[in-house]
Write a structure and sequence with these properties.
single chain, alpha/beta, Glutamine Phosphoribosylpyrophosphate, subunit 1, domain 1, Rossmann fold, 3 domains, eight-stranded antiparallel sheet, six-stranded antiparallel sheet, 19 helices, disordered N terminus, binds glutamic acid
């Protein structure tokens, strides 16, 4: 079985001979977009070629069913069309920023999933050549680039290839043009699959989009590009060699229920496994916004994080990184408690960092308002562009993890840790607290972290195989750590509580003997997390203490370091990083997987934990 791949936003393209599909083009596009909606719902747009060969674009901010009439899907007929459902990364959700985007002449339409990192330089270059832009998106450079190369005498396909060769970043792109019957496509990192039919072909972000019409699929690989027509597919590898579509084509057998989740059992599983992509996407998007926030923080006397739930755990790691690496005194506060702590001692020399994946968490929003009233500067970290907390803050940084549907945060937590690690390293560099090599080490760690996240998924399988039984049987457990490892322990325990309903208690490892150790009896599961050799050395004695009282001890630690503590009953190694903050990312992934599998084994639905809502908007 080919597994669904995912990042953010959904794209669809269909080329069809008249009558080959049971519905009209507009209805086909509607159905496909509906199935892609879980990938983004900021706006919807389509483009098609009408009977006279003209390009028509219709788009609107809003969810698909809200704009169904406005776009008028059911009136649309034609033989080639594109659709897009957006999850905004550059430019707020609006009609202008909705895809497809067109060139100046309105004859080329492009849909895109991903981030064009070098869009501002390309845009400046194109504007100097006289191109007029209508949106704030990174995507709009693509149709203008194609237009520019056509102006210079290239054929549409050569112009498309030339344009793609100038793009840096992540992308799945599809383009159509007036008078044409081809859909041009290209892929780098963002997912893209071709659906092969009789008298029609699809190109889409994932298989469920077109599964009603065909189950013969070709996965497009990174660096590949080409085009589809209703009767043919051309696929070229990165080196220009033509790829045999017949050889690569596979038949997928998916049940209709599995389709929504791209073949995964739950959204939580899907979101855990797509962390490598979510991290790559987030890291590619961190730039100017982090630099501006870092300048503010570098001058700050103190930094106070306000956050709730998993965002609070990411804040523990972020605050520790700022304190230790950048030497800016920083503390994390639970946002619902912030009102008791924030007071007249705050001033405009202090920075409050408000962390909220949805950007709407009410307690965090209230803390932001209190901090602003007291004169502090506020920096938001959110996953949702233009949400309330970034809007009300002085500056905003975004993670670009894509929509998270499972109630338990997974990919939004690790991407927050990535963003905060980069922020801390940038502040350290600006303040002259980190040497060039220390800063470079964090940057290099972040570059490697999508790969180490993939490898950590393997470590997660090993943790599940060793520890699942004991967690499934237990009513309680301890998660212990020190320093950065404590942030990971807290996050791991929270996952276990929220989806598997095991009373997992996270505690500072050193504090555990001041009371909680009284609970330990033979067979009691105790999981230890360590992010560095310093943490590991100190945690080692706690492993002994717990072991001697009969606990089942499990240690999750970086490779090479972990081998120093062989006394634990189970040692799970994860890829090693130099920065203990970035180390938290591969360390937490096995813990997420253990919580997920424990929930499934106990017969619970991890996507819908009892009593919980994804975004808490009541105090
Ligand atoms: N970066 C593009 C935008 O913000 C595409 C986002 C996406 O993949 O949804 O419009």
């Amino acid at each position: 079985m080919v597994r669904g791949l995912s990042a953010v936003c959904g794209i669809i393209g269909v080329a069809v001979e008249r009558g080959a599909l049971p519905e009209k083009l507009g209805d086909v596009l509607y159905g496909c977009l509906k199935r892609l909606e879980y990938r983004g719902y900021d706006s919807v747009g389509i483009a098609f070629i009408d009977d006279l060969g003209r390009l028509v674009v219709r788009k609107s901010v809003g969810k698909i069913d809200e704009v169904r009439e406005k776009i008028g899907f059911s009136e649309i007929d034609g033989v080639v069309g594109l659709g897009h459902t957006r999850w905004a990364t550059h430019g707020r959700p609006s009609d202008e920023n909705a895809h497809p985007h067109t060139d100046c002449s309105g004859t080329i339409a492009v849909v895109h999933n991903g981030i064009i990192e070098n869009f501002s330089e390309l845009r400046k270059w194109l504007e100097n050549l006289g191109h007029r832009f209508r949106s704030e998106t990174d995507t709009e450079v693509i149709p203008h680039l194609i237009e520019e190369f056509i102006r210079r005498g290239m054929s549409i396909y050569s112009a498309f290839k030339r344009a793609v060769s100038l793009l840096r970043g992540t992308y799945a792109i599809a383009a159509i043009y007036a008078g044409g019957r081809r859909i041009l496509f290209a892929r780098n990192t963002s997912p893209l699959v071709i659906g092969l039919g009789k008298g029609y072909n699809f190109i889409a972000s994932d298989i469920p989009a077109f599964l009603r019409y065909t189950n013969r699929v070709v996965v497009v690989h990174d660096g590949e590009l080409g085009y589809v027509t209703s009767s043919s597919v051309r696929l070229e590898a990165a080196d220009g060699k033509v790829v045999s579509v017949e050889t690569r084509a596979r038949v997928v057998e998916w049940s209709p229920e599995a389709v929504e989740k791209g073949g995964y059992r739950h959204f939580m599983e899907k979101e855990i496994l797509e962390q490598p992509q979510a991290l790559a996407q987030t890291i590619a998007g961190l730039g100017e916004e982090v630099r501006r926030a870092a300048e503010l923080i570098a001058r700050a006397e103190r930094v106070i994080f306000v956050a709730a739930g998993s965002s609070y755990h990411a804040s523990i790691i972020g605050a520790l990184a700022l304190t230790r690496l950048a030497k800016v005194p920083s503390v994390p506060l639970v946002s619902s408690e912030a009102r008791w702590w924030l007071g007249r001692w705050l001033s405009d020399r202090d920075v409050v960092i408000a962390v909220s994946q949805s950007g709407e968490t009410i307690d965090t929003l209230i803390a932001v308002r209190i901090a602003k009233d007291l004169g502090a500067k506020v920096v938001a970290l959110s996953n949702v562009l233009g949400s309330a907390i970034p809007r009300e803050s002085h500056l905003a940084i975004y993670t670009r993890a894509g929509p998270e549907i499972g109630v338990a945060a997974t990919k939004t937590f690790t991407t927050q840790v990535a963003a905060l690690s980069y922020l801390a390293a940038t502040v350290a560099k600006l303040r002259g607290e980190a040497s060039r090599s220390e800063y470079e080490a964090v940057v290099e760690d972040l570059r490697r972290c999508p790969i180490s996240a993939s490898l950590a998924i393997e470590s997660g399988r090993s943790l599940v195989s060793k520890a699942l039984d004991v967690f499934v049987r237990s009513r309680s457990a301890f998660y212990l750590g020190r320093g950065f490892g404590l942030g990971v322990a807290k996050e791991g325990a929270l996952k276990m509580k929220e989806v598997a309903y095991v009373h997992a208690e996270a505690y500072p490892a050193g504090e555990s003997k001041h009371g909680p150790i009284a609970l330990v009896e033979p067979g009691f599961p105790t999981l230890f997390c360590a992010c560095s050799s310093e943490e590991l050395e100190m945690v080692a004695s706690n492993v002994e203490e717990m072991k001697s009282r009969g606990a089942v001890t499990i240690l999750v630690a970086p490779r090479k370091l972990a081998e120093r503590v062989r006394s634990a009953d189970h040692v799970i190694e994860v890829p090693k990083h130099l920065s203990p903050a970035v180390q938290a990312i591969p360390l937490v992934i096995p813990l997420q997987m253990l919580a997920y599998e424990t929930a499934v084994a106990r017969g619970y639905d991890p996507d819908k934990p009892r009593n919980l809502a994804k975004t808490v908007t009541v105090i």
